[in-house]
Amino acid sequence: MAPRRLPPPYHLRSKVTSLEERFKRLNVESEDKHFRKFSQSVPPRLVERYLEILEELFKHFRVAPGNLELGALTLKVATGVIILAWDKISSAFGAKENKSIEDKFVELAFLRRYPDYYENEQIDWEARASIFSVSLDQGRSILERATEPSTVAVDVVRKGYLSDYVGRDEIVTPILSTLNENASSWRPEEYHAPYTSLIGPTMIGKTRLLMELADEICVVYICLRLPNSSGEPKRSQLATEMLETPLGADLEVYYVQLITAILSVTIKFFQSASKRKDRKELFRAWYQHHNSPNTKFYSNVQSELKRLTGKNDAVHQLILAAEKLGKTHILKSSPLKVLLAIDEANTLLDKPKNRTVSSENQSEEPPLFRFFRRALRNVPDSSGFFAILVDTNSCVANFSPRTEDDPSCRSIGTRAEPFKLYPPIYELRTMDRMVPADPPRSWAELFLPERLCSYGVPFFGSYLKTKMRANLSVAVDKMARFALNKLLCSFKEGPIKITESRALALLGPTIGVPLHGQARLNSQLMASHAAHCGYIDANRDSQYAFYPSQPIYALAANYYLQTNEDVLISCINSLTAVLSQGDVGPGDAGEIASRIILLCAMNKTAADMKTAKETSADLIGVKHISFPDPVPVIKFLETLTGISAHELPLGSIDANHKRKLLEHGMMFWNHFMHFSERPTTESMLECLHRGLALQCRSNQEAFDQVLTIYLKDQFEDELDEANVTFCGIQVKNRKYDSELKNSQGKMNPEKAKIEIKEKTNPYLSLYFTLQNTPPKKKENYKRQDNYKLPSNGPPDYRQASLVFYGLDSFHFLSPGLKEALKQLIDIRTDLVSRHGKRKQGLDYVTDFFLRSTARRLN
């Protein structure tokens, strides 16, 4: 049963009436009654948005009193009276030729049919347009199923808020110290306003951090989550006052009054508290008090706000309230006395919906945040009041822009310094906090889902911990699908459009992609695709996003790419387009391609092994996403080459080492991570623990990628460093590969300076020469001869080696995948290559070169 909607606040009721009058002016009398019901059941801002779109469409379609039939038809489509596929609707209205009108039509119909889901950012355009062909009830069922993963985890989120907090000294203490310093340093002549922003990916623990801060200081928490959202934490009551601003009000003054009202009510609570009460206990009592709908906090703020509205000295009232902070028991002992924490703060970026028809152009209207920040400037210096704006879906520039991009932060006068902004906070060290202190001791422990899910953000480990008594395979499947939805920023079932951001979000957690230099994509990936913030410079000139090692995200992305090859091809094409805009050289492109090839081989081998194990019952039942089994080296090589491993020309390795490598060698990894040091036995064993392969540093000797191999004896279960060895891959992406003939003698642990505990262990060296073709076929040629790496120097009886000439040597890759990889490895970003074979362009470029170079090119 849907919750009963409360009537709108008094100052909004007249607004509803004016909206109904506005609809009547459209002269669609048959819809009056239905519109009235709609306008009274949804927030006024949505009604106003609906009318704005409708008026724009009527204007576009030239719906006039003499042509009301088209207007009525538009409304029948919008309300769901007419049910047709979107392509037929768009053709009937001629919307296909106008993208803007097409988008407006979809927005109109979706808002009218499903207002509860309208503001859900997880439902993309394709999903909204796709449900026009079904009934309203069917559409609602589809939306409920599509958004179910977000509600599956609500109980876990709630339990997470109450669980023991791990790592307080490393997480809470330094951030609290920063906030105290910020509050102490606030000066209106130096800083623009007393606020900062908290930046972090989804589920990193931003809200839980605020709860932990509330044990140490007074935190006033306001969550601006959308009214009908099923997410946690729930929308705060004060969100209405923050967002539904009074009609025609001076918004800077209004926010000054609202801040004053909140401060006044907060101070009264602490003034009335017993001085004998423990400090932490009192802060916890306050946090529960002001977040509970069963206390008078909200009504007290409303009353105080109403009282202040009748006064003309808003700033003076704020100063008086701030002065009381320094005299209030408990609060006065800390530099930071009150922290106003605004969660889900991206809503403040909306433009005010409180303007009258005669108000200034809406397109030029500043967002609510701009007025809120101006109000914060009126806070007296050294008062101990500070604000923090928190949100996953907000780009850094929204809240803490560069000084050059924000006119209000610029200096006043020729000698004045520009106002500074407090740097955003992003060092939230919650990664791997759920990982057990003791590493796995046995082979079987390596593959426990609850252990693998403990790596990364705390949420996934917490979820499986709460579901241990339930069906574990179902729980892992739900988590993987939830993680996939987070990466794609979409809860739509079935095919979705692969944008640049989605492509990088699928490749980032698996092969690792360079994101530096892609400012626009960095922002999008951090905001909506679960990427982490690695660094933001002091002036916000640049930000660096990346995907750390998180096995659950790698599992989700690999599953999606393995089962949808067209998506993988689209991702590679998008990556090629992104990289070609920068300064990525052929060497880097070749290494990226090699990681894609290796991962495809690993995924295919694991999938083939899983299929071979399936029974007839498994084929009938529901297939769950699950972590793969470890892959034998012998099967991995057979996938790479398409040839039985025992027939491969593995170089100088002797029979005993070959048998040990092929019969006992096992690999377990599903993603790559950049490693800035030389690999060691210790680091390679740790990679095995988290299912990880290493992308070597740029100046790593001998190898570009290193895959851990564990020599597993079938009778031994205990893990031993002495059984660790590796597969090293060297990649060359050049047509004339002069290093090939000498590579065999260089690709060993000694030349690579890789510390191996058991130096007699066999190892595997693979050489990828991606632009080369195999040598000419000799007499008695066999296909496996193409994989024989030329010998060089004295034989190494530990080394098994192979060479791969060009993309055609990887027979398991489809033609479409090879073509996409070919485009990737052919990236050339120098001026000459960008012009291709176009003579006019080449002649133009050579004018900038030395004459000797120009003559050679011509």
UniProtKB/TrEMBL annotation:
Domain of life: Eukaryota
PANTHER family xrefs: CHROMOSOME 15, WHOLE GENOME SHOTGUN SEQUENCE, F-BOX DOMAIN-CONTAINING PROTEIN
Protein name listed in UniProt: Uncharacterized protein
